[in-house]
Amino acid sequence: MAAAGQAGAAARGAAGRRGEKVRSDIWVEVEPRPSGPIEIELRSRVAIYYGEAIRAQVRDVLQALGVKHAGVKIEDSGALPFVIAARVEAALARSGTPLRGDARPRQVAATPPASPRERLRRSRLYVPGNEPKYFVNAGLYRPDAVILDLEDSVHHDEKDAARLLVRNALRTVDFRGAERMVRINQLPLGLKDIVAVAPERPDLILLPKVERVEQVHEVDAALTKLAKLAGNDRAQGPWLMPILESAAGIENALEIAGSSRRVVALTLGLEDYAADLGVRRSADGAESVWARRRLVNAARAAGVQPIDSVYGQVDDLEGLRRWAENSRRLGYQGMGCVHPRQIAVLHRAFAPDGEELERARLIVAAFEKAQSEGLGVVSLGSKMIDPPVVKQAQRLVELADVAREGDEP
Which whole-number Å values give the CA distances from 137 to 133, 178, 206, 387, in the listed order? Predict the structure, then answer.
């Protein structure tokens, strides 16, 4: 945070990371001054190639924020422009200097089309919000969604800097078709996250530790207010996925699922849930079976997607496969990922098998034939097919087609 100097001396602020093992980041220290030029001391392994570009960007960011006189120290570890801009802004804010103006980088990544409410969400890859080295390549692994995480993966003292980094990433990073999600912090701190990231149009915001509908209402109201201020009254804005992580959250699952038109899915935080019960999380998940079943039932009753928790044993892909296949049998439509190697396992586990998909295609074909002939009854052979079965078959075929297109290199 801002360092207090001697009376009359300018405060310094620093942000970012430095060291031999750091990559794709930058450490910046800013000392605003009452007069004089902007002086920049730069250390970088690529200074001979990009030194002048880094200096020019630092000057541009400072001037955009209303600072004309400052001393700046920089240790660069291969940071991209969106990272440099975020770190300079965070360092200046930590100096205690009022920020005047807008230093967000130019929007490079084309904003993707609005995310459909019922889109495929088999896998969502968590990316620590203060680790820019993971941002750029996250979409290369072909997850259905990328979660830029501002909560558990970010130290409390780095929340402010991570918020700016995630904001800038949403403007500039191409996530290659993955749904762009942000996990905000628990309220009330999460409201600051929303103010920063919502204008950059993330597809979905995850709400941690939800126990009451009022928490969802508070976020919904904040998003609606921001949309109106931006003159975008009719915008849907980001979807919401509440995370239920306690006994109280599970008990209120149905009310939470139906608390806002923005809610499209419910998910679990099983580590915190087990801790709230006072038990240890087990490999087979025996302690959470009831909660997982209850969440599926509540989500289905409210018309939203049930999404399972993460599987934390990164090296145990066979265990992940068993867990994911069981999740699908329970009614879940996807899970969280903590490592890219888990993505392909989840995509296979949540895909319909050949026999199931073939039957779904036969049902859809029978339905379309009945429609073309003006018949109100759908039959497959000698068996009548009820409307809910037809609807489920249509969804399986649709998702299988979307999955095939999305998984193609």
Answer: 8, 12, 21, 43
Q: What does each C-alpha distance from 94 to 37, 81, 89, 162 come to in angstroms?
A: 21, 20, 9, 13
Tell me the average pLDDT of the chain: 89
User: First and final CA of the chain: distance in angstroms?
Assistant: 44
Domain 123-349 has what CATH class?
alpha beta
Look up residue 362 and give its two tokens. Answer: 């036969």
According to CATH, the topology of domain 13-94 is Ribosomal Protein S5; domain 2 (3.30.230)
Q: Is the peptide bond before 188 cis (omega within 30 degrees of 0)?
A: yes
Distance in angstroms (rounded) separating the CA atoms of residues 339 and 318: 15
**CB under 8 Å to 103, separation ≥6 — which residues?**
61, 64, 65, 85, 88, 89
Tokens of 195: 């103010």
pLDDT band at 407 (very low <50, low <70, confident <90, very high): low
Flag whether pLDDT at 276 surpasses 50: yes
Task: Find, among 4, 23, 3, 21, the residue nearest to 13 by Cα.
Answer: 3
For the question of whether the overall pTM of this predicted structure is more than 0.85, the answer is yes
> What pLDDT sits at residue 230?
80
Q: What is the per-residue burial (b if ≥16 Cβ within 10 Å, else e) of 364-374?
A: bebbeebeeee
What's the pLDDT at 7?
A: 37
pLDDT of residue 372: 75
